[in-house]
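Handoff note, outgoing to incoming analyst
You'll be picking up this chain. Sequence as last confirmed:
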Amino acid sequence: MGFSAKLVRSQLNFFKPLVANCSLETIRKGQDKLGELMEAIHKKDVIVRDEAFANFEGAWIMPRDERRQGIILYLHGGGYTCGDLDYAKGFGATLADELGVRVFCAAYRLAPEHPYPAALEDAMEAYSYLISRGYGNDSIMLAGESAGGGLCFALCLKLKSLGLPLPSGIIAISPWADLTATAESYTLNREHDPSLTKEVLEFYADCYARGSSLKDPLISPLFGELEGMPPSIIFAGSDELLLDDAKGLYNKLTAALCESRLIVAPERWHAYVLYQLNENEGDMDAINAFVNKHLSQERKLRWLRLDNAAKIYPAARRRNWNNFFRLSATLDEAVDREVLQSALDVTVRRFPSIAVRLRRGAFWYYLEQLQKAPRITEEKPCPLAHVPFKQVRECAFRVIAYKNRIAVEFFHAVTDGTGALIFLKTLVAEYLTQKYALSIPDEYGVLSRLSAPREAELEDSFLKYSGAVSASRRENTAYHLSGTPEKDGFLNLVTLMLDTASVREKAREHGVSVTEFLCAAMMQAILELQAGKVRNRRLRKPVKVLVPVNLRNLFPSETLRNFAQYITPEVDSRLGDYTFDEICTLVHHTMGLEYTAKLMSARIATNVNSEKAFLLKIMPLFIKNIAMKAVFNAVGERKSCLCLSNLGNAELPEPMRSRVKRMDFIIGVQARAPHNCGIISYDGTMYINMIRNIKEPELELHFFRVLRRLGLGARVESNQP
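Most recent structure output, in case you need it:
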């Protein structure tokens, strides 16, 4: 929505004599109201996040349709004496919405209370802050109007003097670059400029300089050595007092062989671009083209090869089964879907390896970054309800809001439990920030949504830590539970809730870790279940539980992709009965022997070397899928009774703890194995989620009885009708 140039000019002419006689306080209030109006125009299209610094206030403005990478540091105008954060947000929101790029507004300290060099110091701090957030100098562009435009050049001069890297470019609108106010345009346009007077500018200059020379290049950058300045685009109105400031900058820049473009709009006034005039729509097009050239083009969707572990999941899929898992957080009150959608819009930009869709290549599947966040979905009849593969190829995860619960379900090719938990924590943190204006620190796996993604988070750590020697993965076939299949893909969920401290104490009594203790209890339950079904001991099969282990604890990796291996403790039930302590000993020794960097590296090498085989490389994808599915059927699911995955204790930053009441981790059933078990602890409670696609709850009953014999009571929940 734009404004008529004729209308705006008439309004400015009307207010000009009034403003000239107003106090500085009144002028400040008027300018701030103008900013609020501009921000309101774009309110629905941007997300605003305030950021407090020691000496000034800042704000992130993130477009909902974020089409570009990088960020614009916006320094507002106001003669160094006017303009608060509300004013800065006005044009900042315009830039963010129109350009589809993030904007950071720095409401620097104002004169006369804070004369030079306060504004420059704050601009330096804002620039350094963005660098610390992971934005390289080539991903930062400066923008400013009037005093802010001059401050952009002063900032670059300061950076150059310190030998620091310069930003990618400058957008300067009616830059105030010569505070001496001695150029001819100050006289020639005295009667033509509807918004400024020379007297007001001289007053502003005196307030800001306060005894410092007005020819100091860091006050009046027109007097500086402009060699090496970044590319710039400069706007000015033909009728404004500061016309010669803009022309002078352009002439000096081009003389210094710096790339610069000057646009002088006929019959326009100071900072006319801010008003988004209908007659000057081409100015924003020019800014767009400049940003496109020097900051970033329209977002090119990032793509990633599947990590080594991920390649099996699309190949192993079946018509009614995909390998998904769920993490959820239950809040203290009902989820606001609109706020959650807004939080998701922000969060997905921080996770380019998770906010993806699965794409089909000639030889391998690959992941492609999503242009926009998916829509929040409704809860299905059961958790982890089947997702058609067609939908996975559109979006490989889904966010579900149900009453007080925020749940995210992930296709396993995208990430593992560790990466997924970081995503969920970060999403919930963003939701609580927007909903309750909480200040949540970046800790306990909560990532800053304001920082750029780091390359280390995107690496395929399997390739990086693959050993020189391979290790055999030959294993015995395990006992498989069976039962009556549920209709329509319904999944039964039984949740056991235990006191975390009590489980830890019991584990210590038996000399094992919590995961080893629970694995032993599950194996005991399966042994008892098998003994009741298979009376002839010689016909029984080994009881084996698949235990995922986080390789980030062995190798220095920050990846958010898959980086886990599996250990499969085994008890051969044909050899006789086992006490619980004997099972604990077997599990403990197996975990201790296998969970080592050397052995895990060798197992990684086994899989990586298979992937690198020449015949496999050149094999078309449809043939690969057939071969990999056969391997998965023969080696994957047959080698364990079920998977027991423990994510451990989920910690949250203190401001989140009172709002998050519970967390859950649910693993989807496998194609052939009817049971799986996901475990997570939060706020003193351990949540053991047992899921199955058969009607009979035998395993849950046996597991519950084993825990009770061990002295552990549990509260039980179920989704069974």
